[in-house]
Predict the structure.
Amino acid sequence: MNLNFPTGLCAERFLAEYWQQRPLLIRNALPGYTSPLDGDELAGLALEESIESRLVLERDGSRPWQAEYGPFDAARFERLPSSHWTLLIQDIEKHLPEVGELLDAFAFLPRWRLDDIMISYAADRGSVGPHVDDYDVFLVQAAGHRRWQIEETGRSEAEYIPDLDLRILPDFDPTQEWLLSPGDLLYLPPHIPHWGLAEGNGCITCSVGYQAPRLDMMALDWCDQTIQRQVPAVRYRDIPLRPQHDSAEIDAEVLSALHADLLGYLQQDPVAFARWFGCHVSEAKAHLQIEPAAVPLDREQFMAEWRMQGSIERNGWSKFLFFPATDERCYLFVSGQAFSLPLQRRSTIALLCSARQLVYSSCMHRFSDQESQELLCSLHNEGHLQFLT
């Protein structure tokens, strides 16, 4: 599946002129694309414990813009009003591979930036209200029609209407609007006020969200892990001291030496930093923790099982990333863990990250050495690769 850029625009120009800068509407961006799920199937997913779901009612609730959180029971959907409500399903690509195929259209973007695909199903006039997001999003119309409006002026957090379940902007004054049909796409960079309203029933929109990690949280995690690995649990030792005129004064030389020591402990080579970063950005969400295989296998047992089953598939909850390092190793990051193979096996690791299924007959030659087979076996035992039966 490829993104159908308009004439004169390509991935390079999009990244240079639009990404994180200004909105872009692309008509017929995904020709013929339709939702792989209908409203009844989405409602069925919202009944499941493992799936994050929400219902948003602009009216007919106990308060305006009421949000309810799943899992729901089937009777809840029978009591919904005829209009002004939306069902939202988060992380749907992690549960249904057929939805994840939509990500192929955005393969020109770094996967570590991807958060999830959220699907919204809306009755007529269904919406989550005028609001601002702090991430990049591609809004793909998959069924029905939705009218999108945006404001060009920025808004602050303080402007949201207080005491609501959602962050709703008051006095929304749109400067542009578009009606999207199936296959159309609207890209919005962060912090653009926007409002999407379903026109007619059966409106399905896929929101492909690219959420950047917060700098303070990254710094906290990096410092914490660096301290655990590199800072010894010993007491400070004085540099050679001289008698002080005023004992309450902090000596500048002492402070400078201590500052240099602490900074020295935090220094990391590029490979160590890359290993930390890959683990950090591949970590699974708290509610999507991967369970290890019920029966762990050794390498020979795994290879025999792979040959017998014919294929093995990637766990949709696992995030696979890689980095070819300067220490002659290629690092694979899966849900916060780091694995590696020799750098000359880069294409093998790239295949692991790109292929949703590994078919034995066509892939076995890529994993003919013992180290590659041990890696596959470890990924299976950790729950990141799963046999279909």
About this structure: The mean pLDDT is 94.
